Amino acid sequence: MEALGECIELRREREGATIASEDFAVWWAGGRHELEERRALENYFFNDPEFDDAVHPSCMSYKQRYEHALTKGTKFLAKLREWQRSRRAQQPKGKEEHELEGAEDSVNIKLLYDYRMLLSGPVGTALFQQSFPLRLHFSMFLPTLLSQGNAEQQRRWVGRAWRLDGIVGTYAQTELGHGSYIRGLETRADYDAEREQFVLNTPTLSAYKWWPGGLGQTANMVVVLAQLYIRGKHHGLQQFLVRIRDEQTHEPLPGIDVGDIGPKLGANGVNNGFLGFRNVRIPRDQMLMKNAQVLADGRFVQAAQPLLVYGTMVFVRVMIVRDVMFGLLQAATIATRYSLVRRQSPIEPNAPEPQILDHVTQQAKILPQIARGICYRLAADVLWAIYQRVMQQLEAAGPNNSNGGRELPELHALSCCLKAVCTEGAAEGIDVLRKACGGHGYMSSANFDSIQGLASAAFTYEGEHTVLLLQTARFLLRQHLDALKRKVLPASVTYLRNASPLSWSDNLLENVARALEISAAAQLREAWQWQQEQRQHGKHTEQQANNLSGRRLTAAATLHGHAYLARNAIKQLEQLRRNVQPALYELLQQLVELFVLHTFLRQLGAVLKWNRNGISSKQLQQLEQRYEQLLGALRPNALALVDGFDFHDRVLGSTLGCWDGRVYERLMAEARRNPLNQEAVNSSYHTHLQPLFRCKL
Amino acid sequence: MEALGECIELRREREGATIASEDFAVWWAGGRHELEERRALENYFFNDPEFDDAVHPSCMSYKQRYEHALTKGTKFLAKLREWQRSRRAQQPKGKEEHELEGAEDSVNIKLLYDYRMLLSGPVGTALFQQSFPLRLHFSMFLPTLLSQGNAEQQRRWVGRAWRLDGIVGTYAQTELGHGSYIRGLETRADYDAEREQFVLNTPTLSAYKWWPGGLGQTANMVVVLAQLYIRGKHHGLQQFLVRIRDEQTHEPLPGIDVGDIGPKLGANGVNNGFLGFRNVRIPRDQMLMKNAQVLADGRFVQAAQPLLVYGTMVFVRVMIVRDVMFGLLQAATIATRYSLVRRQSPIEPNAPEPQILDHVTQQAKILPQIARGICYRLAADVLWAIYQRVMQQLEAAGPNNSNGGRELPELHALSCCLKAVCTEGAAEGIDVLRKACGGHGYMSSANFDSIQGLASAAFTYEGEHTVLLLQTARFLLRQHLDALKRKVLPASVTYLRNASPLSWSDNLLENVARALEISAAAQLREAWQWQQEQRQHGKHTEQQANNLSGRRLTAAATLHGHAYLARNAIKQLEQLRRNVQPALYELLQQLVELFVLHTFLRQLGAVLKWNRNGISSKQLQQLEQRYEQLLGALRPNALALVDGFDFHDRVLGSTLGCWDGRVYERLMAEARRNPLNQEAVNSSYHTHLQPLFRCKL
C-alpha cells in the first residue's frame, strides 16, 4: 500500500501526549542499546522484499501454508546466520564472540536460549504469524541433545544439528492418548542385547506420537520419549534419537508412519505431526545417556535424578509468560490504535462522532489490558531472575547435590501458577480486545486470530491449565502446613503466616494486595479443611478427597496467582521509582494501580467472600471511582504508551493496528489482493449458479 | 471411516444412565412428530453422497472454500425444494399446503421464517459448518422485499426471488466506517426528477458497504440502505433495490465495485463482500416504497413510522439466542463424549486412569454448560412466544395504531439484553468446553473453531454487545423511574418495585433468584445516582453523564439479564412439572438448579456487594456444597443427556464428539486424508530444505 502518512487522529493524539514514547520504548526494551539492536535487526529483515507475502497466509490452503512457511523458514535461518556473522565481524573481539560463533564446541544452552529469543521474538513473529516448522529444531531438539546426551553423543550430533547439516529434528513426547500424565505414555523401546539395538514400537493407535512441531513433513530426526524395556523389565521413560526420514531422499524410513495432524485454531505454520513405529531399530548409542545408561549386555545404570531436566520445564513456562504477554500487548496496541481512528455514536447530540476510545465503556475494555501486559512483564522479569539464580545454584552444587535446588520447589510452583494464570488472563484479554474492535476485529487481516490462536495453544501446551493449578495447590498446601508449624516460608507465600484480618488504611494498593492475599490464604484453608473432612471416618481415600477438593484447590491456586501478580507489581513499582524519569514513573504508577484494582474487581466475589468485614460499601465505591479516574487519566497517553512498546507494523501484522492509523485503506487493500477477487466472475457461477437460475428452484 | 460400533466407555455409560435419552429427545424436539420429521430430513440429506466433502474445508484455500460452499449451496437448495415438494405430495390437502407451495403469491414472512429455520437448522449447520453464501438471500433479502416493498414491487420481485429466477440477493447496510450508529451511514441516493432515477454513490472509502453475506461473488441484486437526497434536501435512510451484476454474464455492472472482504475467524463460507457505487442509476420504482414514497416529480411522502421494521430486528435477535444456544450445546455434546472416552491421571494410585469426566474439575467445566444451554432454550422459547404475541397485536391494530405495540418496548429491551448476555455466555461456555478437551480441542477437526467462530460473530452482529446493553439500561432506567412513581411495571422488571432486602429462606433457588434481582436493581440505582451526580452543578451535560456512567449501566443491564434468565428457568421448571415424566422432571430440576447456582457463583462479586447482610458465610458454604453435589448427581446421566439433544454426527462435525466415541480413530482418519499427507515428500524439501542441508547454515 502506498504510504499516506499518519492520519490526523493519530497525529493529534501524539501531539497531545504528556509522555515521550521514545523514553518509554528505551525503558521497555531494557536500554537504548537493546532498542537500537532490535530495530536494526528488524530493518535488516523487513527491508528485504524476499520476506513479503504475495498472498495473505489466511487465504492459502493448508498445504500451501506449509510450503510457504517452510520456504520462508529456510530463508529466515540463512539470513539470520548471515546477520550473526556480520555482527561478529563488526564487534571488537571479546567475550561474546565465542557464543556467536556457533562452532560445534561452542553450541551451548545459553546460545540456544538466545536463539530461541530470535526465532520467537519480534522478527520471528512478524515473518510467521502462525509460527513455522523449523522452530522446534532449535527450541526443543537441540536443547534436549545438549541436556540429555552424553559427551560422545553431543560431539557426534550437536554441531551437525546446529548447522542443519543433514539433520532437522523435533521432540516427540505427547501421544494421541496421553498428554499431561506422561507416565501413561505407551510408545516402547525394547533392548535387543544381541544386536545392541533398541526396537521401537507403537503398540496401539493411542500410542501414536501426536503434536510435535515440524514432525509432519519437515523433521528427519526425532528425540522420542518411550518406555524402556530390557528383557521384559520396565526401566521408565527414556529418550531416543531416531532417524525417521532418509537423509538424501527425505522418504520416511521403513517402519515409520509419519504425517501432519491437520489444521488447528492457530499455529498453522507449525507442521505438527503424528508418528508411529513398527519395529524400528536404532543402535544402542542413540539412547540419550547423560542420566541413564544401557550397557551393551543390557545392564541398566541410573545416574542421580536429573534436577536440570526439571529446569528445562520451568524455563519453558517462564518463556510462555513472556510470550503471552507479548501477544496481549500486540492485541492491545492494535485495539488502541483502532479505537482512536474509529468514530462512532455521538456523545453530544449535534457534535461529530467521537473516537470510540472516548467512550468510557471502551476505555474500560482496553486500558486495563495494557496495564495487565505491563504487570505480567514485571512478573516475568522476576521469574526469569529467580530462574537464573536457581540454575546457577544448581550448577555450582553439582549434579549429585540437591542442596543447590533449595529455591527450586518455589520456582517450580511459581512458574506453574503464573503460566496458568497469565495464559488465561492474556487469552481473555486478547478476546476482550478483539471484541472491542467490533466486526473488523473479526477479520483475519486484523490478525487477532493468529494472536489469539497462539495464546490459546499456550493455555494447554507445556502443562495443561488445571493440572498446573493443582500442582501449585499441592505446593501451597505444604506451605500451609509449614505455616501452621510456624516454619519460615519462601518469599512468595510468606503471607500465609499472616493471620490478621484486613484493616483498610489510606494506602489503597496495600489494602487491595492484602485483601487478595487474605482471600488466597482463606480459600486454601477452606480447601484443605474440605479435603480433611472428606477423609474423616474413612469416607474417602486421600486421593478421592483430593479429587473432591479439586474445584476449591484450583480456586486457591488461582487466587494465589492474582495475589502474587498484584503484590509483585507494587514491589517492582517501588524499585522503578529510583530508576526512571518522573513522567514515566507517574505513568507506570497509574498502570500498576489500574492493574491492581482491575485484578481486585475481577476477583470481587472471592475478595468479598473472604473479607466480609474488612471492606465497607463506601470503600468499595471509592475504589470504583478511583478505577474510573485512572481510565480518564490514562486516556490521553494511550497512544504514546502503545507506541512505546515499539512494535513494528510487521510484528503487529494487522490492518487495524498500523502506526499510521490508515485502517480503512489497509482493510480495503488487503481485501482487494485476495485471490478470490482476481477474477470478475468466479467459475462456480457458470457451473452452478447460472444452471440454477435456468431451471429455477 | 469404517463403522466400528460404539466404544466400550460409551456403551457402559449408556447402560448406566437412569434416564432414557429418547424421552428427553422427544421433549427437546417439541414432540415425537417434530423429532421424526427432523430425523427424516437429516437422513434425506446425509445419506446422499453428493454432500460428503472429499477434503475437510479447513484444508482448503479461501477461494476453494467459497467455490465449495457455493456449489454445495446450490445443490442444497435444489434438494430442499424437492423435499418440500415430496412432502406436499404425501400430505393430505389442508391448511399447510398453500404455505409449502411457495408460489409467487404465497411467499410470506411466515414461510421465510420457516425456511430460515431449515437453512440455519441442523441440516444447514451440518452441510455448512461455516455457513454458505446463499443464506442471506432467504434470511434478509426476501424478508426485506416483503416487509418494505409495496404491493407492486412485491408482485414484480418476490416470486422471481423465491424461485432464484435470475435473482440472488443480499442486504447491504453496514459500511466500512459505520456499524451500530446507522444514522452515520454515508452511501447516498440522489433523486434525478428529470429521468425519474436515483443516482447511487459511495462518497468516501469509509462509505463502502462491508460485510453483507453473499455480496462478494454471489449476489446479483442488493437491497441497499442509503441516505436519500431530493434536490439536495436530506430525507433520511431509505432502502433501494439495485442490480449489481449482469443477469446473464454475472459481470459487475458499470459503476459497481464489488468483491469479497476476505478470511475471518469463522463463517468463512459466507462470502461477505464490499460494494461501492459510482453514479449507479436505478429507476424510481426501485426504492422500496411501503413506508415512504418519492413521487415522480420529487415530492417525498412519509407514511406512519413502521413498527414492523422494529419487529424484524427483534426477530433476528430472538433467533440469535437460539443459534448460540444450539452452538453451545453442540460444543457441550462434543466435550462430554470426549471426556468419557479420554482417560487421564489416576485418581487412586494403582487404579487405571479414569475417564476424565470423573475428575470433579472436569465436571465443573462441562456440566454447567449443558445446564446453561437448556436454560437459554427456556428463555428463547418464552421470548419467541412474546414476539409472536406482540406481532399479532401489532397486525391486529393496523399500521397506524401504535397501541398494538404495548409490549413492544419490553420485548425490544429483553431481546437486546438476552442477545447480549446469551451470546457472551455461550461464547464463553464454548471456550471453556474447547479448553476442557485439551490439545485435541484445538484441532479444526474437533470443530470447536467453526462453532466458536459463529458464536463470536453473533457477539457483534445485529447489535454490538455494549450498544445493546446500553439500550437495555435505558429501558431499565425508565422502569426505575416508573417504579419510584409506583407505576405498574412490565412483567420482566416487576422486581424493581420490590425494595425488601434478601431474607434467606429454605428455598435455595428462590434465595438465589432474589439475590440476583436485588443486585440488578441496586446496580441500576447506583448507576442512576452516579449519572445524576455527574450532572449536578452543571458539571456535565446529560450525554456526558451517560457516558461517564457507561460501565455502571452495562453492569446493571448484564445483571438484569442474569436475574431474568435465572428467574425464568425457575418459572419454566414449574410449568414442566405438570408436563413431563417424573424421571425427566428430576433431571431438569437438577439442571435448572445447577444453572441458577452457576449464575450466582459467577456473579458472586455483584451479589455480595449488593446483599452484604443477606447471605452468611455458612449459607455460602452450603450453596457451594450443593453445587458440587449437583455435579455428582448429574455425572451418571451426562451422556444420556447430551444424546438426548439428538445431534446427528454430521451436525456436530467433530472427530471428538461422535455418537460411537471413536475419537482416536477419527482424529487419525481425518489427519490422513489431509492433502498435505498425500505425498511422501513435499516439493519444498527439494527446493529449499535439501539445498540448505547442502550449503549448511
UniProtKB/TrEMBL annotation, chains A, B:
One of its GO terms (molecular function) is FAD binding. Its cofactor is FAD. One of its GO terms (biological process) is fatty acid beta-oxidation using acyl-CoA oxidase. Residues 171-280 form the Acyl-CoA oxidase/dehydrogenase middle domain. Residues 21-166 form the Acyl-coenzyme A oxidase N-terminal domain. Pathway: Lipid metabolism; peroxisomal fatty acid beta-oxidation. Transmembrane segments: none annotated. PANTHER family: ELECTRON TRANSPORT OXIDOREDUCTASE, PEROXISOMAL ACYL-COENZYME A OXIDASE 1. The gene is Dvir\GJ16816. Residues 509-693 form the Acyl-CoA oxidase C-terminal domain. It comes from Drosophila virilis (Fruit fly). It is found in: Peroxisome. It comes from the Eukaryota. FAD binds at residues 174, 213. The keyword Transit peptide does not apply. Coiled coil: none annotated. GO terms for cellular component: peroxisome. Its main location: other. This is Acyl-coenzyme A oxidase.
